[in-house]
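Quiz preparation item.
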């Protein structure tokens, strides 16, 4: 990796219940997700990167800048960092618009990342500008906080579980805004989460932490498509496939996608979308939406049938099994009952057909 396009951090930092001990290099571009259970060291790592903690044994480089070493410590206000906390930290005595205007005044020098008008439109803030923070919902406050972080013209954007304090409906409302930000602005993002669902929507790179140590640091799509990816603990086990939009069929109201990394590039037909042919997307497929057949059936209403090989089986609660299926260079996951596995006499190494009932499009 080019040193001018990376963030490197090596530190040893004793905490109350563990020692944060890592030597890590991540891209200074796209979205890097720091993923792990509560208490694994995610927020401690982020606070160190932000300069909110002065750690004795730490070497931190951002691109070609030394932010911390044995001889140097760059304070937070000189790092040009945008920080979005779990709870939106807005000035209570200022309206949303005044909070944003304050950010513009203290923006870092250089070419602006965005303008006030652009970020207001992007995050849908027009009708909120005259309201005070206590008049806004949790999701609205976070949108204002994100806009403020962008307006300071950061060279790095840090997000510490920005959806953690929101209910499911508010999370669903805010996530599309986060997706737009991550794709539209050329600023690296470090995003902390313990939700694989959030990570799958946003991440280009993933760092997995456990008790202060890095257990995995990899391209996200590569990581999630490895058989050892610790996904079985998730409530909604799913697969993530990289696909390309091929065509739209107006008569059927469907869009055809092909899977990357497969010689014959089998197709998936999904509800029609507004993406242009040739555009690459991610498809999220719930394991509960995948069934298996020993042969390729034409007499079925399921139109998405893919050739796969069973590579592992893992027992789940309530008489269920999670099967990992090799699909070209990707992993497809299926959640089946023990009865179905026994009835079909399924075995590791067996070639079967996966029937995909539905998939969610991730732009």
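Solution:
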């Amino acid at each position: 990796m080019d040193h001018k396009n990376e963030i490197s951090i090596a530190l040893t930092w004793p905490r109350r219940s563990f020692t944060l001990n890592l030597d890590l290099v991540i891209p200074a571009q796209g979205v890097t997700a720091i993923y792990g259970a509560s208490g694994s060291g995610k927020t401690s790592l982020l606070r160190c990167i932000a300069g909110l903690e002065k750690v004795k044994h730490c070497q931190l480089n951002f691109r070609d800048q030394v932010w911390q070493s044995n001889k140097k410590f760059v304070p937070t206000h000189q790092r040009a960092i945008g920080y979005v906390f779990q709870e939106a930290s807005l000035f209570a005595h200022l309206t949303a618009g005044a909070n944003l205007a304050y950010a513009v005044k203290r923006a870092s020098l250089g070419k602006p990342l965005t303008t006030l008008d652009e970020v207001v439109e992007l995050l849908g803030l027009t009708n909120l500008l005259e309201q005070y923070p206590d008049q806004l919902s949790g999701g609205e406050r976070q949108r204002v906080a994100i806009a403020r972080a962008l307006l300071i013209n950061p060279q790095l954007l840090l997000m510490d579980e920005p959806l953690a304090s929101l209910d499911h409906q508010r999370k669903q409302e805010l996530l599309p805004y986060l997706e737009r930000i991550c794709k539209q602005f050329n600023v690296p993002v470090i995003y902390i989460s313990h939700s694989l669902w959030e990570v799958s929507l946003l991440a280009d790179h993933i760092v997995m932490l456990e008790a202060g140590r890095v257990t995995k640091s990899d391209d996200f799509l590569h990581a999630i498509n490895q058989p050892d990816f610790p996904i079985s603990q998730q409530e909604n086990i799913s697969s993530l496939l990289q696909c390309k939009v091929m065509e739209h069929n107006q008569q059927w109201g469907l869009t055809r996608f092909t899977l990357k990394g497969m010689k014959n590039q089998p197709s998936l037909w999904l509800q029609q979308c507004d993406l242009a042919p040739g555009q690459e997307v991610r498809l999220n497929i719930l394991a509960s939406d995948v069934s298996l057949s020993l042969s390729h059936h034409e007499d079925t209403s399921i139109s998405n049938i893919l050739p796969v090989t069973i590579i592992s089986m893992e027992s789940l609660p309530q008489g269920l099994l999670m099967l990992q299926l090799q699909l070209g260079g990707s992993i497809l996951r299926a959640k089946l009952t023990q009865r179905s596995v026994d009835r079909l006499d399924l075995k590791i190494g067996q070639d079967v057909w996966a029937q995909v009932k539905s998939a969610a499009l991730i732009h």
